[in-house]
Amino acid sequence: AQKVTQAQTEISVVEKEDVTLDCVYETRDTTYYLFWYKQPPSGELVFLIRRNSFDEQNEISGRYSWNFQKSTSSFNFTITASQVVDSAVYFCALSEVGGNEKLTFGTGTRLTIIP
Amino acid sequence: DARVTQTPRDKVTEMGQEVTMRCQPILGHNTVFWYRQTMMQGLELLAYFRNRAPLDDSGMPKDRFSAEMPDATLATLKIQPSEPRDSAVYFCASGLTTSGDTEAFFGQGTRLTVV
Questions:
Q1: B105: which chain A residues are within 8 Å (Cβ-Cβ)?
Q2: What digits encode the pLDDT tens for the residues A37-56?
Q3: Mean pLDDT confidence for B24-37
Q4: B5 vs A: CB within 8 A
């Protein structure tokens, strides 16, 4: 069975600080996808990134970066120079490939950026 | 800007009433998902369709819930009769599945309150 663990329930940092959100996953599949979604106070789920299990290269997109380490089954998300608009709940998710593409979500990390 | 559209955004209903939630997937997407978000259970898959055919509805209480895709531009989730424990945010997501890979884009959700 698949499982995604986001051990950090809530994090608060002062604006402009860097912050890392942890995600640890479990799966028996050799091929899978990992995702991060953002849920701002307005409630919608915003897609941030998808990573194939065969691609362990780190990804950077502006102030966002992702560190995928298969050896530790982790897919951590770092926001550099945080801004108030980054305040949201962030979800890590996992899906199989080639059969059941449903997303298994973690419980989310509520990030608050203090001005 | 293509997006998944869900209606209604908010619904308050009395216990025992029928509730129908609608979703218009992104044009051209062939996979549609229904997820439910609650404080206790987090985000969980209820059902999903590929090319309008149901693939997995194991997460859905069969006695009161039903999901359909009358055509490629409309997915519906119906609860009859509704109960207070059905109160949640219901998300629809759509994606284009190629080579067993689906990147899901979420709608803004329907917040259901059953009193």
A1: 47
A2: 999 998 889 989 988 888 88
A3: 94
A4: no
